[in-house]
């Protein structure tokens, strides 16, 4: 389907204006201390609310005027049009000729029939599938669904990789306090046999349910692990005397202990999984945008359908905000544009995401796939080369762990690393250390870090502490290190949905400025293909070995010589 070529952002008036603006900020000197001192309303002007989240952009290297120029850039690259095209289901993933409709996954029941794309009542299908997932989840949670020997399920093991793993595991970890049915989840992704071995070692097969999640149902890692899990289940059930090993009992065991999630339901049946226990989604959901589809079935089981609905409502709140708010006031779009400001004007390469919440410990890893698989591209959606740097390296660890590891480089290194600091006002685990509220101690670190990064410490301040002159330079903090603070009341299914949708739309915004298709991932194909070709060379095929390049051949020879 024809799609308009991307606007070259670097040729827009706004880009030129941003360049001038950047230069004048450099000339006058970027100085957050002075900017705050000279404008008592700075924080007010640069703070926003979206959904249940509060955003403070004032510790960024921007003046209010910068945001107007960035919004202007958004207009000139037709960001509003692209947002509308996405929500309406146009095929904006043009290299795969697909609509991009993860936003439809969280549209409410009353929107049934309101979005028909390529002849499909999208919301109707989404809601019908959710109903089936919820009914199944309720059966497992209540104990009505049992394993083959009649015992209730206490562990679900999600087998998937990439988008079929990172979203569910991140969200499960984030929402652990809501897992209220005595069912826990584990996640197996790596084809390294150690992963499945360690995750199943202490499990009772009679109380374990495997969920095989694969959009394509062709992914080598997932199908290998699924077959391994099937053997593990049957072997252990037999050893425990739960089945006799007959074909009929094995088939029944697989029916009771394996369900699947995929867009390729025919392939699921070939695997031996009962199609009634398979939940579908659609090719207009990218893997990394799929945690709120059937891919989140492990969540629906552990936290329950009601909480899952709240999770979806959180996404939907940010979707509506993003679609309906003018760019100048739209903090979601502005955060994406701000990232462009750092990448393309300041030359930043990476972006730290630092959640001050232990439950969000997998959030940076999740964001790595979301953002880097989406925007790590060198050609635009019309096949022409990109005209600027694209993509950011997203990384991070929960605070305060990162403080004692890599913050040194953010505070005093030579690189500019914009950072998002995320925290919640309340904790589900209040604790006191003598008289001190531990969560407040934790939050004090959250507030202190962005303050230190923004305002630093001058040589005179260091001297005033009586520091020996010879080590004054080492103890100076330049400040002017940009951060965005995101605060919420509580980490709940709803606020987690909001956070995820926020970063999904930040990703679209950046991708639109860079002109890339944020929804394909051709870059992962070559390695997969070569792994298939190399497999025979590793085991014994000398001809296949000889066909390798010299370095690869030598590495394989080392392996062959050293294997036991
Ligand atoms: O869900 P699947 O089809 O098994 O795909 C799993 C993952 O593998 C692919 O290689 C892609 O890079 C990911 O975008 C995808 O999430």
UniProtKB/TrEMBL annotation:
Pathway: Carbohydrate biosynthesis; gluconeogenesis; Carbohydrate degradation; glycolysis; D-glyceraldehyde 3-phosphate and glycerone phosphate from D-glucose: step 2/4. One of its GO terms (biological process) is gluconeogenesis. The gene is pgi. It catalyses: alpha-D-glucose 6-phosphate = beta-D-fructose 6-phosphate. Its EC number is 5.3.1.9. This is Glucose-6-phosphate isomerase. Keywords: Cytoplasm, Gluconeogenesis, Glycolysis, Isomerase. Belongs to the GPI family. Pfam families: PGI (PF00342). One of its GO terms (cellular component) is cytosol. The active site is at residues 373, 404, 528. It comes from the Bacteria. GO terms for molecular function: carbohydrate derivative binding; glucose-6-phosphate isomerase activity; monosaccharide binding. Catalyzes the reversible isomerization of glucose-6-phosphate to fructose-6-phosphate. It is found in: Cytoplasm. It comes from Bifidobacterium [indicum] DSM 20214 = LMG 11587.
């Amino acid at each position: 389907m024809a799609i308009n070529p991307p606007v070259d952002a670097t040729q827009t008036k706004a880009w030129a204006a941003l360049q001038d603006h950047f230069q004048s900020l450099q000339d006058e000197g970027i100085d957050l201390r002075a900017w705050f001192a000279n404008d008592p309303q700075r924080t007010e002007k640069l703070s926003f609310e979206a959904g249940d989240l509060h955003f403070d952009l004032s510790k960024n290297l921007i003046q209010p005027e910068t945001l107007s120029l960035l919004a202007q850039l958004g207009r000139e690259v037709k960001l509003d049009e692209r947002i509308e095209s996405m929500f309406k289901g146009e095929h904006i993933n043009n290299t795969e000729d697909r609509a991009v409709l993860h936003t439809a996954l969280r549209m409410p029941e009353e929107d049934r029939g309101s979005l028909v794309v390529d002849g499909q009542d999208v919301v109707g299908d989404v809601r019908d599938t959710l109903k089936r997932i919820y009914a199944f989840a309720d059966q497992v949670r209540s104990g009505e669904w049992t394993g083959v020997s009649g015992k209730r399920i206490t562990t679900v093991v999600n087998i998937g990789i990439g988008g079929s793993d990172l979203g569910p595991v991140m969200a499960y970890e984030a929402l652990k306090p809501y897992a209220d049915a005595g069912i826990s989840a584990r996640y197996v992704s790596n084809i390294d046999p150690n992963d499945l071995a360690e995750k199943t070692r202490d499990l009772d097969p009679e109380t374990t349910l495997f969920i095989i999640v694969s959009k394509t149902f062709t992914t080598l890692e997932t199908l290998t692990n699924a077959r391994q899990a099937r053997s593990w289940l049957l072997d252990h059930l037999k050893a425990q005397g739960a089945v006799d090993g007959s074909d009929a009992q094995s088939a029944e065991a697989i029916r009771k202990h394996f369900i699947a999630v995929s867009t390729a339901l025919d392939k699921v049946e070939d695997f031996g999984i009962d199609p009634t226990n398979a939940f579908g989604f659609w090719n207009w959901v990218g893997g990394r945008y799929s945690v709120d589809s059937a891919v989140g079935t492990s969540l629906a089981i552990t936290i329950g359908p009601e909480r899952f609905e709240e999770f979806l409502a959180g996404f939907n709140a940010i979707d509506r905000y993003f679609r309906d708010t003018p760019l100048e006031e739209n903090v979601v779009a502005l955060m994406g544009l701000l990232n462009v400001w750092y990448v393309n004007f300041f030359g930043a390469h990476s972006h730290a995401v630092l959640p001050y919440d232990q439950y969000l410990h997998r959030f940076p890893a999740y964001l790595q796939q979301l953002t880097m698989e989406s925007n790590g591209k060198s050609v635009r959606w019309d096949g022409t080369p990109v005209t600027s740097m694209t993509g950011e390296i997203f990384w991070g660890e929960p605070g305060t762990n990162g403080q004692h590891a890599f913050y040194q480089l953010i505070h005093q290194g030579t690189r500019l690393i914009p950072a998002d600091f995320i925290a919640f006002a309340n904790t589900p685990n209040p604790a006191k250390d003598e008289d001190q509220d531990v969560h407040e101690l934790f939050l004090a670190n959250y507030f202190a870090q962005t303050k230190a990064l923004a305002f630093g410490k001058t040589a005179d301040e260091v001297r005033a502490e009586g520091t020996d002159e010879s080590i004054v330079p080492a103890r100076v903090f330049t400040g002017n290190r940009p951060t965005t603070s995101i605060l919420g009341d509580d980490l709940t299914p709803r606020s987690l949905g909001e956070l995820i949708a926020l970063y999904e739309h930040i990703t679209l915004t950046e991708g639109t400025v860079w002109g890339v298709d944020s929804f394909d991932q051709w870059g992962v194909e070559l390695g997969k293909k070569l792994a298939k070709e190399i497999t025979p060379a590793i085991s014994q095929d000398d001809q296949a070995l000889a066909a390798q390049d010299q370095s690869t051949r030598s590495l394989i020879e080392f392996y062959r010589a050293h294997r036991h």
